[in-house]
Design goal:
This protein has twelve helices and eleven strands. It is 30% helix and 13% strand. Helix 1 packs antiparallel against helix 12 and helix 2 packs across helix 6.
Length: 388
């Protein structure tokens, strides 16, 4: 690679040369700064494990163990915790949320089911009252506020992306049912058994491994996504509240890395993401095939009341979303028909495809536009499927 870039490091099976080539192309042609990509098969074999470039400071090298915030990929980790409790018969997806969290039934939310929560149908993708300073760092404060919130629509009748609130709605269910915090439960039941470098609540002793992110800078002539257009048109509407009413949350501050923000605060790299999704594949999967099929069965499809585009969700996971007919970047995340996973704002992605028998992870520090994938991540996904 040119001297201005760090050489790509890691290893890959020669059958996946196309993934390596696209990864390099991301640096040469698509503005990648620092990134990692990993693919594992259903037998646990790592067929791609690559990283390269620089940290957010533009100087320090991205290493094998560099991690970064992966935003909404964290929702997949939170969802896996809920499915673990379902598998253990401690949580019933058809039960009313009030069975486990009585206070949540306030102001017309009493008929909300656990499945509604997992499928972004619970009607509280935002809080109306201003969040206190650093409120996102206080798990109980936000959970209590959401319990007392009036829904933006009748729960169960429509869906809208719970951009950050998913981490407290589903996360509080996990806390109430298990008696453990979301981060602790994830570590005990998912991360520790597989040695995953994925964290909901990161230890200060490891902060030196974190690459801060570089914000997306749109061109003035770029078309606005429907979400951004709606946010700009109504500064007090749902979209503005979902994105901006966060108590001054700064995602790349050390106190945020340490907090358990289950909708958008996870810390990992591609190896951690691919490894997390490998837990649903193979003979040593942590979940039954019936539970995996529930994860990828659509429960919400069509117009998303938050993002203002068509979206598709299983029980806690994004399914393939193809909105290439819409103008602008970040409106699609195209994976296999039977695959499920989650994107993170700016372009990170983790997913599993039980039919194609592989799991995938991609992280980066140069954010792209929109909420879903940009051409860097999608090019790697497309190359992976071509190789498979």
């Amino acid at each position: 690679m040119p001297a201005k870039h760090q050489a790509i490091q890691g290893q890959y099976d020669p059958a996946f040369q196309a993934v390596r080539d696209e990864f390099e192309c991301n640096f040469l042609e698509r503005g990648e700064v620092g990134a990692s990509v990993c693919i594992q098969d259903h037998k646990g074999r790592t067929v791609v494990d690559l990283w390269g470039g620089k940290l957010g400071d533009g100087e320090t090298k991205w290493t094998r163990d560099t991690v970064s915030i992966v935003f909404s990929c964290t929702k997949a980790a939170t969802a896996l915790c809920a499915h673990k409790l379902i598998e253990q018969s401690h949580l019933d997806p058809d039960a009313k949320v009030t069975k486990y969290w009585p206070e949540f039934g306030a102001k017309g939310k009493d008929q909300t089911t656990v499945r509604d929560m997992l499928g972004h149908r619970s009607g509280i993708p935002a809080l109306r009252a201003p969040v206190k300073a650093d409120g996102f760092l206080d798990f109980k404060y936000i959970a209590d506020k959401l319990a007392g919130e009036t829904p933006f629509w009748e729960p169960g009748t429509a869906h809208g992306y719970h951009m950050v609130t998913f981490g407290w709605t589903v996360g509080e269910l996990i806390r109430r049912v298990s008696g453990r915090s979301l981060g602790q439960f994830f570590y005990d039941e998912i991360a520790r058994p597989r040695g995953l470098d994925f964290h909901i609540g990161f230890s200060p002793s490891e902060f030196s491994r974190v690459s801060k992110l570089r914000l997306f800078s749109p061109n003035t002539d770029d078309p606005l996504s429907p979400f951004v257009a709606a946010m700009m048109a109504d500064q007090t509407g749902l979209q503005a509240l979902a994105f901006r009413n966060n108590g001054g949350w700064h995602f790349d501050a050390p106190e945020s890395w340490q907090a358990e923000i289950g909708g958008a605060g996870g810390i990992s790299n591609a190896r951690g993401l691919a490894g997390m999704f490998r837990t649903v594949l193979g003979s040593d999967a942590l979940f039954s095939r019936a539970r995996v099929d529930a994860m990828r069965t659509p429960v919400s499809e069509g117009e998303d009341l938050t993002l203002r585009i068509p979206t598709r969700f299983g029980e806690g996971f994004m399914l393939s979303i193809d909105n290439r007919d819409l103008a602008g970047e970040g409106n699609s995340a195209i994976i296999g028909d039977g695959a499920f996973g989650h994107v993170g704002m700016g372009g990170s992605l983790g997913f599993a495809d039980p039919d194609a028998k592989f799991s995938f992870g991609y992280t980066m520090n140069q954010m792209g536009g929109g909420i879903l994938l940009n051409d860097r991540g999608q090019s790697l996904v497309d190359a992976a499927y071509a190789c498979i």
